[in-house]
Amino acid sequence: MRPDTPADHITEAERLLRTAAQYPEDREPLFLRAAAHLELAGARDRATTLYDDLLTADAPPPENPHLIKALKAANLWEYGHEAEARIIIDGLRTAPPADAAAWEIVAETLEAHDELESSEATFTAAVTTLLPSPDDEVPYPAQSLLMGRHRVRRLLGLRHDDWDVLADRLHRGAVPLDELHDPKRLWALGSDDPAELQAEIARLRSELGSYRTALSRPFPVAVLLWPADELDELLAAYPELESEYPTHAAHLTDLEASLRELSAAGTPNLGIVQGTVPSYEAFAASEATSPSNPALLPQYATTLAARGRAVPWPPPRTAPCWCGSGAAYGDCHGTAQP
Q1: Measured distance CA(218)–CA(279) in Å, rounded
Q2: What are 254-299's pLDDT values in tens digits?
Q3: Is position 277 within any domain?
Q4: 285 inside domain
Q5: Cβ distance 63 to 69 under 8 Å?
Q6: pTM of the predicted model, to two decimals?
Q7: I need a labelling partner for 55 at 20 to 30 A (CA). Which of 96, 157, 227, 294 fits?
Q8: Is 278 contained in some domain?
Q9: Residue 254's domain spans which residues?
Protein backbone atom coordinates (compact mmCIF):
# COMPACT_ATOMS: atom_id res chain seq x y z
CA MET A 1 0.00 0.00 0.00
CA ARG A 2 1.35 3.44 -0.92
CA PRO A 3 2.21 5.60 2.11
CA ASP A 4 -0.11 8.63 2.31
CA THR A 5 0.13 9.97 5.87
CA PRO A 6 3.10 10.84 8.11
CA ALA A 7 2.36 7.74 10.17
CA ASP A 8 2.47 5.59 7.02
CA HIS A 9 5.85 7.05 6.09
CA ILE A 10 7.21 6.43 9.59
CA THR A 11 6.01 2.82 9.41
CA GLU A 12 7.68 2.31 6.03
CA ALA A 13 10.91 3.88 7.29
CA GLU A 14 10.96 1.52 10.28
CA ARG A 15 10.40 -1.46 7.97
CA LEU A 16 13.31 -0.41 5.77
CA LEU A 17 15.59 0.01 8.79
CA ARG A 18 14.70 -3.50 10.00
CA THR A 19 15.48 -4.83 6.53
CA ALA A 20 18.84 -3.02 6.58
CA ALA A 21 19.70 -4.77 9.84
CA GLN A 22 19.00 -8.14 8.18
CA TYR A 23 20.88 -7.32 4.97
CA PRO A 24 23.88 -5.12 5.87
CA GLU A 25 25.25 -5.33 2.32
CA ASP A 26 22.24 -3.23 1.22
CA ARG A 27 22.40 -0.85 4.18
CA GLU A 28 23.14 2.32 2.21
CA PRO A 29 20.25 2.24 -0.33
CA LEU A 30 17.83 1.08 2.38
CA PHE A 31 18.91 3.87 4.74
CA LEU A 32 18.50 6.45 1.97
CA ARG A 33 14.97 5.24 1.23
CA ALA A 34 14.14 5.29 4.94
CA ALA A 35 15.49 8.84 5.25
CA ALA A 36 13.30 9.94 2.33
CA HIS A 37 10.21 8.58 4.11
CA LEU A 38 11.22 10.31 7.34
CA GLU A 39 11.55 13.61 5.48
CA LEU A 40 8.07 13.14 4.01
CA ALA A 41 6.76 12.46 7.51
CA GLY A 42 8.34 15.69 8.78
CA ALA A 43 10.87 13.81 10.92
CA ARG A 44 13.79 15.65 9.36
CA ASP A 45 15.99 15.39 12.44
CA ARG A 46 15.76 11.58 12.28
CA ALA A 47 16.58 11.68 8.57
CA THR A 48 19.70 13.73 9.33
CA THR A 49 20.74 11.11 11.88
CA LEU A 50 20.52 8.40 9.19
CA TYR A 51 22.64 10.47 6.81
CA ASP A 52 25.22 10.98 9.57
CA ASP A 53 25.23 7.24 10.37
CA LEU A 54 26.04 6.47 6.72
CA LEU A 55 28.75 9.13 6.46
CA THR A 56 30.54 8.06 9.65
CA ALA A 57 30.36 4.31 9.01
CA ASP A 58 33.74 2.57 8.75
CA ALA A 59 32.59 -0.93 7.82
CA PRO A 60 31.59 -0.61 5.12
CA PRO A 61 32.37 3.02 4.21
CA PRO A 62 29.69 4.83 2.16
CA GLU A 63 29.66 3.98 -1.53
CA ASN A 64 28.42 7.41 -2.58
CA PRO A 65 29.29 9.98 0.12
CA HIS A 66 28.67 12.93 -2.22
CA LEU A 67 25.06 11.87 -2.77
CA ILE A 68 24.51 11.39 0.96
CA LYS A 69 25.99 14.83 1.73
CA ALA A 70 23.80 16.47 -0.92
CA LEU A 71 20.67 14.87 0.52
CA LYS A 72 21.72 15.88 4.03
CA ALA A 73 22.25 19.50 2.95
CA ALA A 74 18.87 19.68 1.22
CA ASN A 75 17.19 18.25 4.31
CA LEU A 76 19.02 20.56 6.74
CA TRP A 77 18.04 23.67 4.80
CA GLU A 78 14.37 22.65 4.94
CA TYR A 79 14.23 22.71 8.72
CA GLY A 80 16.19 25.79 9.58
CA HIS A 81 19.85 24.77 9.40
CA GLU A 82 20.75 26.93 6.40
CA ALA A 83 24.26 27.78 7.54
CA GLU A 84 25.26 24.13 7.93
CA ALA A 85 23.62 23.27 4.62
CA ARG A 86 25.61 26.00 2.84
CA ILE A 87 28.88 24.69 4.27
CA ILE A 88 28.12 21.20 2.93
CA ILE A 89 27.07 22.58 -0.47
CA ASP A 90 30.25 24.68 -0.77
CA GLY A 91 32.30 21.58 0.01
CA LEU A 92 30.48 19.52 -2.60
CA ARG A 93 30.93 22.15 -5.29
CA THR A 94 34.67 22.15 -4.53
CA ALA A 95 34.99 18.33 -4.49
CA PRO A 96 33.55 17.95 -7.24
CA PRO A 97 31.17 14.92 -7.37
CA ALA A 98 31.37 12.40 -10.19
CA ASP A 99 27.70 11.56 -9.62
CA ALA A 100 25.02 13.49 -11.52
CA ALA A 101 22.42 13.01 -8.77
CA ALA A 102 24.54 14.79 -6.14
CA TRP A 103 25.03 17.80 -8.43
CA GLU A 104 21.32 17.94 -9.26
CA ILE A 105 20.21 17.83 -5.62
CA VAL A 106 22.56 20.70 -4.73
CA ALA A 107 21.50 22.82 -7.72
CA GLU A 108 17.79 22.24 -7.12
CA THR A 109 18.17 23.03 -3.42
CA LEU A 110 19.67 26.41 -4.34
CA GLU A 111 16.93 26.95 -6.92
CA ALA A 112 14.19 26.11 -4.40
CA HIS A 113 15.52 28.81 -2.08
CA ASP A 114 15.69 31.46 -4.82
CA GLU A 115 19.48 31.27 -5.18
CA LEU A 116 19.09 31.23 -8.97
CA GLU A 117 22.54 32.54 -9.89
CA SER A 118 24.23 29.99 -7.62
CA SER A 119 21.93 27.28 -8.94
CA GLU A 120 22.83 28.12 -12.55
CA ALA A 121 26.53 28.14 -11.69
CA THR A 122 26.18 24.74 -10.02
CA PHE A 123 24.30 23.23 -12.96
CA THR A 124 26.94 24.62 -15.32
CA ALA A 125 29.80 23.25 -13.21
CA ALA A 126 28.04 19.87 -13.20
CA VAL A 127 27.61 19.57 -16.96
CA THR A 128 31.12 20.82 -17.72
CA THR A 129 32.56 18.37 -15.19
CA LEU A 130 30.60 15.34 -16.35
CA LEU A 131 30.32 16.31 -20.04
CA PRO A 132 33.46 18.20 -21.08
CA SER A 133 31.94 19.01 -24.49
CA PRO A 134 28.36 19.43 -25.83
CA ASP A 135 29.41 17.01 -28.58
CA ASP A 136 29.97 14.15 -26.09
CA GLU A 137 27.45 11.35 -25.68
CA VAL A 138 25.16 12.22 -22.77
CA PRO A 139 24.61 9.47 -20.16
CA TYR A 140 21.00 9.14 -19.02
CA PRO A 141 21.59 10.48 -15.46
CA ALA A 142 23.23 13.62 -16.86
CA GLN A 143 20.30 14.51 -19.10
CA SER A 144 18.26 15.89 -16.21
CA LEU A 145 21.18 18.21 -15.36
CA LEU A 146 20.86 19.77 -18.79
CA MET A 147 17.09 20.14 -18.36
CA GLY A 148 17.48 21.73 -14.93
CA ARG A 149 20.14 24.10 -16.20
CA HIS A 150 17.89 25.10 -19.10
CA ARG A 151 15.03 25.82 -16.65
CA VAL A 152 17.11 28.02 -14.33
CA ARG A 153 18.70 29.93 -17.20
CA ARG A 154 15.21 30.58 -18.60
CA LEU A 155 14.15 31.98 -15.22
CA LEU A 156 17.23 34.24 -15.25
CA GLY A 157 16.50 35.41 -18.80
CA LEU A 158 19.85 34.23 -20.16
CA ARG A 159 20.47 33.59 -23.84
CA HIS A 160 20.75 30.04 -25.12
CA ASP A 161 24.22 28.53 -25.31
CA ASP A 162 25.45 25.21 -26.71
CA TRP A 163 24.33 23.30 -23.60
CA ASP A 164 20.81 24.73 -23.91
CA VAL A 165 20.72 23.68 -27.55
CA LEU A 166 21.76 20.16 -26.49
CA ALA A 167 18.98 20.11 -23.87
CA ASP A 168 16.46 21.12 -26.54
CA ARG A 169 17.69 18.29 -28.76
CA LEU A 170 17.44 15.67 -26.01
CA HIS A 171 13.97 16.78 -24.88
CA ARG A 172 11.33 14.37 -26.20
CA GLY A 173 8.16 16.01 -24.89
CA ALA A 174 5.40 17.34 -27.11
CA VAL A 175 5.83 20.86 -25.70
CA PRO A 176 9.21 22.57 -26.39
CA LEU A 177 11.50 23.22 -23.42
CA ASP A 178 11.36 27.00 -23.92
CA GLU A 179 7.61 26.86 -23.44
CA LEU A 180 7.77 24.45 -20.49
CA HIS A 181 10.31 26.66 -18.74
CA ASP A 182 8.62 29.98 -19.55
CA PRO A 183 8.65 32.10 -16.35
CA LYS A 184 5.31 33.62 -17.37
CA ARG A 185 3.51 30.30 -17.00
CA LEU A 186 2.56 31.08 -13.41
CA TRP A 187 0.49 33.99 -14.66
CA ALA A 188 -1.40 31.67 -17.00
CA LEU A 189 -2.71 29.67 -14.05
CA GLY A 190 -4.58 32.76 -12.83
CA SER A 191 -5.89 33.74 -16.23
CA ASP A 192 -9.59 34.04 -17.09
CA ASP A 193 -8.87 33.22 -20.73
CA PRO A 194 -9.97 29.61 -21.50
CA ALA A 195 -7.41 29.37 -24.31
CA GLU A 196 -4.54 30.25 -21.97
CA LEU A 197 -5.75 27.80 -19.36
CA GLN A 198 -6.11 25.05 -21.97
CA ALA A 199 -2.57 25.69 -23.22
CA GLU A 200 -1.24 25.50 -19.67
CA ILE A 201 -3.08 22.20 -19.10
CA ALA A 202 -1.38 20.82 -22.24
CA ARG A 203 2.02 21.92 -20.93
CA LEU A 204 1.39 20.36 -17.52
CA ARG A 205 0.35 17.09 -19.16
CA SER A 206 3.57 17.11 -21.18
CA GLU A 207 5.62 17.61 -18.00
CA LEU A 208 3.71 14.84 -16.26
CA GLY A 209 4.44 12.51 -19.16
CA SER A 210 8.16 13.27 -18.89
CA TYR A 211 8.13 12.57 -15.15
CA ARG A 212 6.28 9.30 -15.68
CA THR A 213 8.83 8.24 -18.28
CA ALA A 214 11.67 8.94 -15.85
CA LEU A 215 9.96 7.14 -12.99
CA SER A 216 9.22 4.11 -15.13
CA ARG A 217 12.95 3.27 -14.93
CA PRO A 218 13.74 3.45 -11.21
CA PHE A 219 17.06 1.67 -11.81
CA PRO A 220 19.29 1.27 -14.88
CA VAL A 221 19.12 -1.44 -17.50
CA ALA A 222 22.31 -3.09 -16.32
CA VAL A 223 24.88 -5.43 -17.86
CA LEU A 224 26.94 -7.74 -15.65
CA LEU A 225 30.72 -7.23 -15.31
CA TRP A 226 32.99 -9.90 -13.81
CA PRO A 227 36.49 -8.79 -12.72
CA ALA A 228 39.20 -11.18 -13.93
CA ASP A 229 39.76 -12.92 -10.60
CA GLU A 230 36.03 -13.30 -9.95
CA LEU A 231 35.48 -14.73 -13.44
CA ASP A 232 38.26 -17.27 -12.92
CA GLU A 233 36.66 -18.35 -9.64
CA LEU A 234 33.21 -18.49 -11.24
CA LEU A 235 34.32 -20.69 -14.15
CA ALA A 236 36.37 -22.97 -11.88
CA ALA A 237 33.28 -23.61 -9.77
CA TYR A 238 30.74 -23.67 -12.63
CA PRO A 239 32.42 -24.71 -15.91
CA GLU A 240 28.98 -24.85 -17.54
CA LEU A 241 29.21 -21.05 -17.86
CA GLU A 242 32.34 -21.15 -20.05
CA SER A 243 30.15 -20.82 -23.15
CA GLU A 244 28.97 -17.45 -21.78
CA TYR A 245 32.49 -16.25 -21.00
CA PRO A 246 35.15 -17.81 -23.31
CA THR A 247 37.84 -15.41 -22.03
CA HIS A 248 37.89 -12.34 -19.82
CA ALA A 249 38.92 -10.12 -22.75
CA ALA A 250 36.00 -11.43 -24.80
CA HIS A 251 33.69 -10.80 -21.86
CA LEU A 252 34.74 -7.14 -21.72
CA THR A 253 34.36 -6.71 -25.47
CA ASP A 254 30.93 -8.34 -25.47
CA LEU A 255 29.81 -6.16 -22.57
CA GLU A 256 30.67 -2.93 -24.40
CA ALA A 257 29.07 -4.23 -27.60
CA SER A 258 25.87 -5.15 -25.76
CA LEU A 259 25.60 -1.70 -24.24
CA ARG A 260 26.16 -0.03 -27.57
CA GLU A 261 23.44 -2.15 -29.16
CA LEU A 262 21.01 -1.22 -26.39
CA SER A 263 21.92 2.45 -26.78
CA ALA A 264 21.49 2.31 -30.56
CA ALA A 265 18.04 0.77 -30.03
CA GLY A 266 17.04 3.80 -27.96
CA THR A 267 17.28 2.23 -24.51
CA PRO A 268 18.05 4.98 -21.95
CA ASN A 269 19.49 4.70 -18.44
CA LEU A 270 22.12 2.04 -19.09
CA GLY A 271 24.54 0.83 -16.44
CA ILE A 272 27.13 -1.74 -15.41
CA VAL A 273 26.98 -3.85 -12.26
CA GLN A 274 29.95 -5.78 -10.89
CA GLY A 275 29.40 -9.37 -9.80
CA THR A 276 31.12 -11.43 -7.14
CA VAL A 277 30.92 -15.20 -6.76
CA PRO A 278 29.67 -15.23 -3.14
CA SER A 279 26.97 -12.70 -3.96
CA TYR A 280 25.96 -14.66 -7.08
CA GLU A 281 25.78 -17.94 -5.16
CA ALA A 282 23.63 -16.32 -2.47
CA PHE A 283 21.32 -14.97 -5.16
CA ALA A 284 21.06 -18.40 -6.79
CA ALA A 285 20.16 -19.90 -3.40
CA SER A 286 17.45 -17.28 -2.92
CA GLU A 287 16.03 -18.23 -6.32
CA ALA A 288 16.25 -21.97 -5.49
CA THR A 289 18.28 -22.70 -8.60
CA SER A 290 21.84 -23.65 -9.52
CA PRO A 291 24.48 -20.95 -10.15
CA SER A 292 25.42 -22.90 -13.29
CA ASN A 293 22.14 -21.84 -14.93
CA PRO A 294 23.01 -19.14 -17.55
CA ALA A 295 19.46 -17.76 -17.42
CA LEU A 296 20.18 -16.61 -13.86
CA LEU A 297 22.90 -14.14 -14.93
CA PRO A 298 20.63 -11.33 -16.28
CA GLN A 299 18.32 -11.72 -13.27
CA TYR A 300 21.32 -11.29 -10.98
CA ALA A 301 22.36 -8.14 -12.88
CA THR A 302 18.85 -6.68 -12.56
CA THR A 303 18.80 -7.38 -8.83
CA LEU A 304 22.15 -5.64 -8.31
CA ALA A 305 20.89 -2.64 -10.28
CA ALA A 306 17.74 -2.50 -8.14
CA ARG A 307 20.00 -2.37 -5.06
CA GLY A 308 21.69 0.77 -6.40
CA ARG A 309 24.91 -0.98 -7.46
CA ALA A 310 24.92 0.15 -11.10
CA VAL A 311 27.52 2.54 -12.53
CA PRO A 312 26.07 4.66 -15.37
CA TRP A 313 27.26 3.92 -18.91
CA PRO A 314 28.85 5.41 -20.93
CA PRO A 315 31.35 7.26 -18.75
CA PRO A 316 32.81 10.53 -20.10
CA ARG A 317 35.52 9.81 -22.65
CA THR A 318 38.19 11.28 -20.37
CA ALA A 319 37.02 9.35 -17.28
CA PRO A 320 38.61 6.02 -16.28
CA CYS A 321 37.23 3.12 -18.30
CA TRP A 322 34.62 0.94 -16.60
CA CYS A 323 36.80 -2.17 -17.14
CA GLY A 324 39.31 -1.09 -14.47
CA SER A 325 42.31 -0.80 -16.77
CA GLY A 326 43.09 2.71 -15.52
CA ALA A 327 43.07 4.10 -19.07
CA ALA A 328 40.63 6.78 -20.20
CA TYR A 329 37.38 5.35 -21.55
CA GLY A 330 37.93 7.07 -24.91
CA ASP A 331 41.33 5.33 -25.24
CA CYS A 332 40.12 1.95 -23.99
CA HIS A 333 36.68 0.38 -24.56
CA GLY A 334 35.27 3.74 -25.70
CA THR A 335 37.21 3.64 -28.97
CA ALA A 336 35.24 3.09 -32.16
CA GLN A 337 34.40 -0.54 -32.79
CA PRO A 338 33.47 -2.17 -36.10
Answers
A1: 22
A2: 999 999 998 888 887 889 999 999 889 888 887 888 999 999 999 8
A3: yes
A4: yes
A5: no
A6: 0.65
A7: 227
A8: yes
A9: 221-331
